[in-house]
């Protein structure tokens, strides 16, 4: 991918979950997506793209099919998405996205992680306002001009588009990722990669003592079963 695109995408500072949680993370997302929009990938494009992403992250087909079947049969738990926003060491802003079947348990566990790090949760919007919700889609099979024209014809606004070694890279609003992918696929493009998330507008460089506590906070949050994704604005060393 192009250097400009990569710099932007990596700047999201999304903290990936430990590998041991990947199957559980995708399992919940697949179940919720299939239950909400149906199990037919032709009509539920969000599910279609989520399956593709799960496979690219080496999630076994059995795990994918099992969770979709649970949604179809209505035999799984009723998970709800809940977002928590808090202030970490050094004044960092942290967004924690969860899927939970017990909100009281989850909020207590998330609050405990912040408390142990001498930090605290904020109210809704206290951190999110300092982030942009963006999506990034990479495709092959179309040139940049055709891709742009395709999206404009569908009244889809984009922030940026560039081409690098035959791969077209598009930045758009985070809530339009599925719409962008569908329009480009309908035009004959192949999706190479896609990602959406919360990108901080500014970053905070942590002092050494804050860095240690920050790492500990992120680790304890990642250990929580209900946590799906964590976003932050800490500028970390490589």
> How many helices?
8
Low-confidence stretches: none
Q: Total domains, how many?
A: 3
Distance between the termini: 19 Å
Cα-atom radius of gyration: 19 Å
Fraction of residues in H or I helices: 40-55%
User: Which sheet architecture does the biggest sheet show?
Assistant: 5 strands, antiparallel
Strand adjacency order, main sheet: 1-10-3-2-4
CATH class of the largest domain: Alpha Beta
Mean pLDDT: 90
Count of DSSP E strands?
11
Oligomerization status of the protein chains? single chain
As a percent range, the share of strand residues is 25-35%
CATH architecture of the largest domain: 2-Layer Sandwich
Given helix and strand content, the structural type is: alpha+beta
Shape: globular
Q: Would you identify the CATH H-level superfamily of the largest domain?
A: YebC, transcriptional regulation domain
Order of helices and strands: HEHHHEEHEEHEEHEEHEE
């Amino acid at each position: 991918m192009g250097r400009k695109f990569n710099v932007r995408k990596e700047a999201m500072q999304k903290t990936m979950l430990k590998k041991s949680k990947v199957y559980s993370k995708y399992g919940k997302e697949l179940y919720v997506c299939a239950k909400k929009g149906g199990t037919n990938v032709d009509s539920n494009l969000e599910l279609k793209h989520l399956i593709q992403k799960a496979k690219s992250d080496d999630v076994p087909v059995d795990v994918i099919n099992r969770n979709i079947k649970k949604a179809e049969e209505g035999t799984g738990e009723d998970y709800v998405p809940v977002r928590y926003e808090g202030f970490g060491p050094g004044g960092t802003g942290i967004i924690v996205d969860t899927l939970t079947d017990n909100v009281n348990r989850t909020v207590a566990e998330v609050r405990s992680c912040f408390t142990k790090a001498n930090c605290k949760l904020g109210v809704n919007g206290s951190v999110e306002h300092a982030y942009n919700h963006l999506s990034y889609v990479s495709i092959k099979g179309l040139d940049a001009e055709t891709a742009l024209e395709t999206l404009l014809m569908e009244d889809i606004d984009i922030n940026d588009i560039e081409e690098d070694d035959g791969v077209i890279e598009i930045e758009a609003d985070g809530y339009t990722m599925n719409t962008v992918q569908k329009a480009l696929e309908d035009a004959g493009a192949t999706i190479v990669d896609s990602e959406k998330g919360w990108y901080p507008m500014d970053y905070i460089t942590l002092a050494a003592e804050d860095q240690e506590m920050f790492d500990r906070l992120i680790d304890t949050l990642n250990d929580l079963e209900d946590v799906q994704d964590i976003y932050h604005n800490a500028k970390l060393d490589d």
